[in-house]
Amino acid sequence: MHRRLLSYFIALLSISTLAPAQDRLSGKTFATRAVVMARHGMACTSHPLSTQAAIDVLRSGGNAIDAAIAANAMEGVVEPHVNGIGGDLFAIVWDAKTKKLYGLNASGRSPYSLSLAEFRKRGLTHIPSDGPLPVSVPGCVDGWFELHKRFGKTPMPTILSHAIRYAREGYPVHDEAAFYWPSMVARFGKYPNVKEVYAPTGSAPKRGDVFKNPALANTLSLIAKGGRDAFYKGPIAQTIDGFMKRVGGFLSAKDLADHTSEWVEPVSTNYRGYDVWELPPNSQGIAALQMLNLLEGYDFSKIPWGSAEHIHTFVEAKKLAFEDRAKYYADPAFAKIPVKELISKPYAAERRKLIGERAATRVDAGNPALKDGDTIYLTVADDEGNMVSLIQSNYRGFGSGMVPDGLGFTLQNRGELYNLAEGENNSYAPHKRPFQTIIPAFVTKDGQPFMSFGVMGGSFQPLGHVEILMNMIDYGMNPQEAGDAPRIDHQGSSEPTGERMVDAGQITLESGFPYETIRDLMRRGHRVGYGLGGYGGYQAIRYDAVNKVYHGATESRKDGQAAGY
């Protein structure tokens, strides 16, 4: 009897050991959790404390815009390696009253006093990724106040109170931040104030350590009381000006004082009955629309998900869109960008003819005259039907490494993304916005909101947007499954910074694709490998207009949370 029980126990142990950890009662085997559903409000962010800040604001009578600002401010506290008030912001807002989408470009411009000749004098062919040279005006704070002025309900001191409290009292450092933090401190520790702010005990905080940033708490308090002018014209601006002069930088009080955000019209294409909305350049959002137009010409009901044909077609479409991205995308105040033509169906039909059976080793940008970080993304929806798609970043981890005296945050290095060659759309010029990688997205169907979503991760973002949409529209996945599905990346395309495509590049695949697929891709001329991270991070809220229910999804690769009430 005992021997039989022991054998039974060993069999059970073997089954539980061998069974995949993600076994679920229903749905895709790679799904890590169920979709979160709620009727009154939803917040999906890359950190639980940010999600809870948003939910607190919603429960207290604030709307989605108020809650999104609260979550973003909290993100700058708890995930300083990827975002903060030293960076830029873009947002798409669905306003339930007007039943219309509004786009906000809250990206900053280059310093007036820094010229292309200065880079030439220093012998540079590319702008460095750290130090004072890649610093452009931070647009985040102005973005908050523009959103709040147009749509907000809750007073800004209340909205920012959650972030202020956690910056002052501290929070436990989570897994992803703890992974990146030591390398960032090692890299930037040579710069002023970095160790004092981010390694106050002498070393980077470890997983579970309680980290406090009282200087950032004071800065946020000044903003809460003094508004955006406290940052762009008041004591914060003066501190940044003095610091940048001391370290040999060019960003000045005048650059900050003259900063403005811009309300822009989102642009769209229809993909199999769904209107997909992105923001126009200087961001890279329309690359996703170009890819969707190219891919719409293929019947994916006959092309299995994860097959070589699926991945090959996807990557070749990406190569074509990214050539146009490298040539055309830039600040529209300085360059003529044929957005309407680039995202047109006839242009896609002509470009689609270039996709063959083998991996392309060279493609050129098209003629549309025919008839690539570290980032946070969050999305919030409220009881009134308002939805916000918001993305915010320092560009690379911890930005430029420039930490102004006593302010508790890092200035971004977004200026690294200019081209130092003359005569290009994205060539460096004073008071010009650089090419931007960060892109929020939105989907409507029949004039009603369908989904607010985004995928973090530098140049990967357009690919991530397209993969999410294909997973849902072509392959029938729910929002959580669409984000959990193994992802496809490709590196080696031409870039707006001047690099040119010289071969087929390399596809990198997450675990989950069969070797048969990889073998077939190699036979088609692709190089295939694996990447450690680099596949972005994702949040989404889908709206069920029939039942009036929000469906929230969050990124399984990071430490986020989707929550509703």
From TrEMBL:
Give a GO biological-process term: glutathione catabolic process
Copy the pathway line from the protein's UniProt record.
Sulfur metabolism; glutathione metabolism
Q: Which Pfam families match?
A: G_glu_transpept (PF01019)
Signal peptide feature range: 1-21
Q: Which InterPro entries match?
A: GGT-like_enzyme, GGT_lsub, GGT_peptidase, GGT_ssub_C, Ntn_hydrolases_N
What's the Enzyme Commission number for this chain?
2.3.2.2, 3.4.19.13
Annotated L-glutamate binding lies at: 458
Q: Which domain of life is it from?
A: Bacteria
Which species is listed as the source?
A: Spirosoma oryzae
Residues the record marks as active site:
375 (nucleophile)
Subunit composition and interactions = This enzyme consists of two polypeptide chains, which are synthesized in precursor form from a single polypeptide.
- PANTHER family referenced in this protein's UniProt entry, alphabetically: GAMMA-GLUTAMYLTRANSPEPTIDASE (AFU_ORTHOLOGUE AFUA_4G13580)
| The protein's name | Glutathione hydrolase proenzyme
Please provide, alphabetically and separated by semicolons, the GO molecular function terms listed in this UniProt record: glutathione hydrolase activity; leukotriene C4 gamma-glutamyl transferase activity
Q: Which UniProt keywords apply?
A: Acyltransferase, Glutathione biosynthesis, Hydrolase, Signal, Transferase, Zymogen
- Give the record's family classification: Belongs to the gamma-glutamyltransferase family.
Q: Which reaction does it catalyse?
A: an S-substituted glutathione + H2O = an S-substituted L-cysteinylglycine + L-glutamate; an N-terminal (5-L-glutamyl)-[peptide] + an alpha-amino acid = 5-L-glutamyl amino acid + an N-terminal L-alpha-aminoacyl-[peptide]; glutathione + H2O = L-cysteinylglycine + L-glutamate
As for PTM, the annotation reads:
Cleaved by autocatalysis into a large and a small subunit.
